[in-house]
Structures are given as C-alpha cells and as structure tokens.
Please model this.
Amino acid sequence: MTHPLVRLTMTALFCLCLIGQQPARAADNNLQQNLQNVLENSPATTLGFIDLQTLPDEVNRMLLATYQENENQPYWVTEQGPGQKAEALLSVLKSSEEEGLDPEHYRLKNIEKLWKCVAPQDLAALDVTLTLALGNYVTDMREGQAVTCLLDPKLFAAARDKKVNTLEVIKQALAAPDIISFLQNQAPQHHGYQSLKKVLARYKDLKKQGGWPAIPAGKVLKPGMHDKRLPLIIKRLAVTGDIREPVPDFKIYNERLVQAVKHFQKRYNLEQDGIIGKATLAALTIPVEDHIRQIILNMERWRWLPHALDDQRLLVNIAGFRLAGIQDEHQEIAMPVIVGKVYHKTPVFSRTMSYLEINPFWNIPNSIAINEIVGKMIKDPGYLARKHIRIFAGWQNKSKEIDPSSIDWKSIGSGIKKYRLRQDPGPENALGTIKFMFPNRYNVYLHDTPGHSLFKRTRRSFSHGCIRVSDPLALAEYLLKKDGKLWSKKKIQALIAKGKRLVVPLTHPFPVHILYRTVFVEPTDGTVHFFDDIYGRDKLLAEALFSDGQPAHCRYNFH
Model:
C-alpha cells in the first residue's frame, strides 16, 4: 500500500514524463541541479521508500552524504539516460524474487516509468531511486526483509542484529568491476540458503504448471485396499518426485505405492507406516502456494545468520528435531533430538561449545523446583531421596546441605528458589551421562537423557527447553575428535562407568547454531523436508514479512 503523500508526489514527479517531452536534452549542470533538488526534497518519502527499516530523516542524511562523496554527481545516469551499471542493478532487482524477496520493495514500477524519461528532473529522480533501491536490496540481503517491529523479540532474538553501512555498500557496489556479481554475493553462500533457493525455483515452476491435484477426503487408505482416489494420489506423489518412474493408474493400493507414500511421510516428518490417514492426507493436499511461502520464510531466517558458515559447526533444527555436525558444507554426523515443549520453547541463538561434562550434576532450575518438585514432595516425601536429589542452603558452591524433612513443603511455594536442588550423577539423572555446554543466557544446552523411548516419536517436543540428543556417545566422540582428542566410545564409556563427574574442556570452541527451520534440504541427497510449525513461529514471521500497509509508527519503531 502506497502512502497518499507518496502517490501525490510521484504523480507530480512523473507528470512531465507521462504527457510527453520535447526532444531537446538538458545540460549536465541542469541534471546536477535537479539532482540537488531531489535530494533536498525528502527523497525517502517522495520517492516512495517509506518502508525502509530506517527512519526517513536518517535515510535522507545518508543520501546527501552518499552524493557528496560523488561531488553531487549522479551515480547511475547521464544526460543520455541510464548507464550500464544502472542496467545491471535493474536486472538484479528484477530477479530478486529468485531470492525470496519482494521486488516491489525496490519500487520497480517507479523505476521502469522513469527509465524511459529524458527530462533532467526525471533522470535525477531515477538516479536517487536506484541508489535507494540498491541500499534497500543490500540491507534486505544482509539483515533480512521482515519489518523489524513486527518480530517478536523473544522468538527472533537473532534477527536483524547487525546494521548495514549503506554509504559504504554503495561505494563498494559502484567500485566493483562486476556489480551483478557483487550483489549476488550479498546472499548467504552456504548450503542451507542456496539449496532453498533452488527449491524455491522448482516449486514456482510447479505452480506455473498447475501445482498438484486436490485429493478428496475419504476413508483411511491401507495397503491392499481399493480406492477411486488412487490415480490422484499417484499424480500427486509423482509431481514432487516421491514416485520417480511413471506409474499406471492402479486400482489397488499396492506395495510400490506404499513405499512412495512412506517416502512422502518421511519428508513431512510423519509416521512412516504407509497408511494414508488424516495427517498424511492433510500433508498431501497442502497447496503449492503454501510451500512456496514456507520456503521464503526459511530463506529469510538464513539471512539472519552469518552469510559464510565455513569450517565446523553444529546445527540444531528445533522444528526438524534434528542435529547435524557440518564441516564446511559436508554433513559428518546427524541424529534425532528432543526439544522444548510448546510451553517451554527452545530459543533460537548461536554460541560456541566450550566443554563437555561426563556424569554431570543437574542443578534444577527454579521454575521446575517451584512448579514440579514442591508438588511431588507434598504427595511423596521420599521423592527426592529416590531421585538422588540433594538440597543446599543456597546457590553458592560451599552452601551447606540440608535435610529435606526440615522444609515445610506444603507452605514453601516459590520460597524453594532460595535453595539449590542438585541431582547427583547416575541412572536417574535427567541429563543422562553427558552434558554438552555452550554457556548462554537461556541456560540451554545439549545433553543425554534416561528416556530414550521418546526418540521413537516423530514429533519430539518434550523437554523444558534444553535439547536431548539420541546418541551422546557418538556426539562426544565426534566433538572430541574434532578437538584433537582421539577418545573412542569405549574410553568415554569407561569414564562414565566410574560414576565421577569429569569436565572435559575443548581446546578449540565449537560453534553451535540453534535454528528453527520448517523447510530443510538434505545435503547428502537433496531431499526436501517440510516440518510442522510447532511453535507457531512461521505464522509470526509471515506477519512481519508479508504484511502490507503497516502504519508508519510501526515501520520506524526500533524498540
């Protein structure tokens, strides 16, 4: 939605161009004077860039400084019209949809109207519009395109935490021997983003071809059954490659189709039973437009991270319930994980792992002590002893241990938080045998668990926020090997068997990125996975990314 002031100003700006021009050209100094007039007339507003992530006055000051750097000469045009760099920039802006960006964020319609104009005032307006579009494009690429004030700070703490020096970017772009390559390099270069870009192109092609057929509701379809919907199901699975070879319209749900359905179910994190029930049918009928939207949301999230993720790192995908160890762009280890419940959401952040704990203590968080432990002790006074949980008079290391029977559990309530409850190492310990520490303000870490049966579930949101790993021995061996410590699983198991707490520092801290990705491309074979929006974060991000016509006070609010 365009602000009325912008519509009025742009109408005046284009007036001469649209009703026709005299063929005579203006002199250079006339173009320069018109450029100065545009710069002094609040160009961020008059040229329609009122939805930048920066206050209009700040944008206007930046523009003045930018053109002063160029001795108040135009960057993109001459009296003969747009130059080669302008054409190169326009080609990138037109292809911005390939990056999951909204081209109208760069005022392409206005640029194309001005492109054909020859009057000095129009050429001046075009030059400034291109400069604003360039700044907008690079900011979107480096910081993300979502409107900042619409992002929930608790869920998007990592979003747009860096500022682009627009003046410096413009100087770099214009000095680059190939501005197209320069702008293409503003995108994240790692597999996570580039693979989604390819998937976006593929699904947009599917949309142009009509997407896939709707499949009507019906009875649960099990192997061996007959169903008139089978031809539609076959066509649906063929469109997205779950069936890779042509298949005749079977009248019976045979084993070949069952395997294709299982492949589809795996890609959507559904139970891989080959039965087309309510959940599988719902996934089969998600429109292609919704998939495209979901891909764009996840491309936006990758723009919030460093654009070059070189060397080694751990990626934990909350929505995909999965951990992966990456060396450069090669996946070296992967395993299922358990993440926080809906009411104990695992946060998104990046830190570096600095040490491991074998046979860790568990210092029970106050929230768990207040909301869970107190109630259990009221019902069962022997609960703490049975779970090997000890109580200390305070949170200092030398605090004295106290007898649980000395506490009035029926009246203590939130007063329990003045005490430290610590569970000793052992089979009952909620952290299992190994804890992987990357200190952070959320007090979230990776750890083992005694409850391994939960890893059989497809939707694994059961924790209080920390991340439980399915194979802690393999992860410990991997991380220690990366750190130059050639510890085998056998050696680690022997240390665990001693029952003593052991802190193992990492000589080289290991980067850890806790992510929320509802679309993921398998680096080993290119399989595209779609995951449920378990915390509703896609919905919140969509409101910030796809919203139109937001009030100015929202667009310019940074707090």
About this structure: The chain has three domains: 4-189, 215-284, 309-522. The chain is about 40% helix and 15% strand.
